[in-house]
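pinging the channel bc i need a second pair of eyes. not urgent but kinda urgent?? the chain im working w is below, pasted from the shared doc
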Amino acid sequence: MTRPSFAAPAARTASGRQGRVPFPAMDEYSRHLLQEHLDADTVHVEAHLPGTVDVERLRAAFTRTLAGHPTLQVRQSDSRWWHRRYHWEPAPIDPAAVAATADLGTTRHRALTEPPPLAAGPPLRLETAPAPGGGTALLLTAAHTLADAGTCLRLLCDLADHYSGSPVGERSAGPARQRSAGPADASTAATARGGRPVRIAPAASPSPGTGVHLSVLPLTRTGADRLRPTVNDLLLTAVQLTLAEWNHRHDHPTGPIHLSMPIDDRPYGPLAPGAPMGNHNHLTTIRAGTPAPDAGAAALLGRISAQTRAAKAAPVTGGGLVARLVSTPWLPVGAKAPLTRTLRRVAAPWTSTALVSNIGRVTHPLDFGPAGPPDALWFSAPVRMPRGLSVSALTLDDRLHLAVRHCHQLLDQSAAAELARRCAETLDALAEEGRRR
């Protein structure tokens, strides 16, 4: 089951007893699903800087950054099973939340598998490690209950400004988002809504934990025509074709491949000054049907482009049964949590094949002063079985930064690297075909 499409979440504003505020609906849904001994529900952001970062200066900059975002300087307050809602409360910043480490692999593994505790302070962690080839790797880890990837990247932009002494946020502004010029053709946008999505053929020995494969690709240019496929459309199509080919090579049963796609609800995008922090995404599902061996990639790209335009133009609605369950005022959290998890298990056969999240172009310079701007920047979204796979992308300096995050019981590290390589090849082939058209 994909995360429901709740209406835009309420802001976390200090009100009530000692500044306590109820969890917005998206936070509460995430919290009900969370089983801390099983899940690593983290957002991982990783920047590679050419220079060296001073940890004390970074710690001071992190403190100033969070002071500018009080909705993130919180922790989950004490809760009992009979309480009707979970609550956030103001929390002091733990200096140990910013630390230098000796090994990037270990630090990245921690970012993927060890979420910052919700109740121990702001559930955020900032760590540095030596980057390959020199310089500094900067890793920001957030509990997904608190923040989405857009929030984490905005936090990183402000952190860079505080660290370098630049005016905070002034260079993050971007144009207001434009909705689609009109709804896509309904017959095209509604393609292949039926049928259970197929799973990805596993290529691993069953084992716990998650991993990530990071890569950098040349940017696929699509032109300024708003009716032409976007980078996001090309990426969705490339993932669709890659997974179909992957399953075919592994003699896996064929079936419809459904891709979950987050849509950011912020009117000016996540990196604009004043954009709300927290969780501000709703998921839509791209259903392109069962890929046929002789079907043209251009036709598939057209269907996916039509669906994404329609999804972005559609109003945000309630999330159905799960949303009503989360917001029920008379049901205690001790009952909501197991019911929410049970509904998710029941709906597991209809969970999408993979999640594809593209945050777009990062225009903020992210200048860390003496340490310089990043050579590379990635983020990865959390994964759970049965989906077990997320593909996350952003554009920085005319290069697409791709993160393939995976459950180890689905793909091992070498299989994830192979899948990422094939996805890159497919993306390049789609771009080349588009240039010839």
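so Residues 413-436 form the longest helix (24 residues). and The two ends are 38 Å apart (CA to CA). — does that match what u expected or am i reading it wrong
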